[in-house]
Amino acid sequence: MALQSALRQIHYPESDGKPIADNTRQLETIVYLYDNLSALFAEREDVFVAADLLWYPVEGHPEICTAPDVFVAIGRPKGHRGRYLQWEEGNIAPQVVFEVVSPSNQVGDLVEKFRFYERYGVQEYYVYNPQAGTLDGWIRRNGSLTRVNEMNGWVSPLLGVRFGLENGELSLYRPDGEPFVPYVELRRRYEQAQHEADYQRQRAERLAQRLRELGIEVDEA
Fold first, then answer.
1. 52 shares its domain with 107
2. What pLDDT shows up at residue 206?
3. Range of 220's domain?
4. Residue 103: which CATH number?
5. Per-residue pLDDT for 5 more than 60?
């Protein structure tokens, strides 16, 4: 009982004090991944997608944590969280992790994160470097994260998404072949569709008015 009480009193911070991104390009990529993965699994209540959320894999050890740029936890319900406490999540580790490299990332930081993800059960790990235009991936085999030889055209076993890299630019494709769409482009398409719908509605109203002027009865249904 004393041990359980002590565990409950341990503080697990919701922030590591670091910004979500060091520059606009890194942030744009993180948002691109988070928005589209959230949309991909919007109809599945058992898939949780997060960005820059602290993950604590071991109860009683708040010093053991990291904040992946984006992660996907399959088998966990949607909902807001201040942090991901694995022991409160059915002891399910995020299966897929994405990191977007920033200029401030040191080689040692990336090695440390790799070791963390390998140790605590990540099944697929992807690293994109916007500055260098490189994309690397690892998949768990025989208990270890093993490098994917060719990422261009690679299909994630768990997510079903296909990776592309053209002239250093990252692009992902849904299982149905449709590309991931940045929010700005999605908003533009939405506004264009709304504009077209408004135009067609006004055109129909003008036509109906003209027919009424000609004495032709118009069915408003």
1. yes
2. 75
3. 182-221
4. 3.90.1570.20
5. no
